[in-house]
Amino acid sequence: MQLQVPNLAANDEFSKLSAIDLLLLSQELDSIFLEYRDSLNLERKVRFGIELEYEGVERKDFTDFLRKQKLNWKSVDDETLISGGEAVSPQLFDQRKTWENLQAICEYLKLKKADTRHNAGLHIHVGAHLLGENIDAWRKFAKIYTIYERVLIRFGFGDKINARSTLFSYAKPVGLQFLASVSDLDERRSLATNRRFFKQIYDVKKNAINLRCLDFLSAIVNMNTLEFRNFNSTTEETIIQNDVNAVCHLLLAAASKNLDEDFLDYKLNQLKNYFLSEKAYLEQCSQILLREMAELVDILFDNNQDKIYFMRQYIKGFESCSDSEVKMAKELVKK
User: Fold this and answer.
1) Does the global pTM surpass 0.90?
2) Is 227 helix (H, G, I), strand (E, B) or coil?
3) Residue 205: phi, psi to the nearest 5?
4) What is the pLDDT of residues 1-39, one digit of tens each?
């Protein structure tokens, strides 16, 4: 039996596929290549920011490029890098100009042969106002993230098949930490309980999620963000766009009234009963968890294109690597 690649315009429920059909679909994804889009069809209320680290290019040269091109991005130093710097965007919206500017920056860095394979990371900020003071949304966000962090970490390898050597030092997964206390959010449904839950990683920047830009002491306003730090850096604008799409939809899904929280509770109980040491958990962050992947895309997206693009980047042709050297995946992006 051979399963055909689904229609990108449809909205199939991939989590309902049998194990064999899900495997066949995953193998068929090699024929799909990610295309850069003018729009992700995100709502206007969605705001995000990008921090793109690179090595091997003089920061002064990059600063001059931004100035000459009149791009409203900043060029800053980053102490974690041996050379190069970090490109920091302003507040961004899903509009053509955003993606044109990102493409110009990536093309420049490609031309200069910037190195994103060794120490450089990619950080994405998403406006926390999408969850606001909605207690239910924060609780559901914690549950989705706890269950599917392992999938999000491998997805975040981007156009590489393994993590940069410093990933777990500068973006430590927090799923196991969350798992130990996520049930508290069900027992006492209050903003104070949510604050206490997230406070456990609040003062630590070097986690997969950084909450130091989040103000839990006052109303959650537009300038507050959740920072996702689990991404390998890349000069492929299509991969960055795909990364942005995933984390923005993560917050949107948590805020949705249509999310099946009973299913999340079922998955949490499964995870609690399946004991994982920290070592085993980190190993699973690099492995391919097809069932969890299918569940996550059905939770995040309402169309096959977004789902297929996420799965294609996550599976990467089933490539894996246990070496310390970061290796590029086979071609993912349409040239």
Assistant:
1) yes
2) strand
3) -75, -35
4) 455 778 888 999 999 999 999 999 999 999 999 999 999
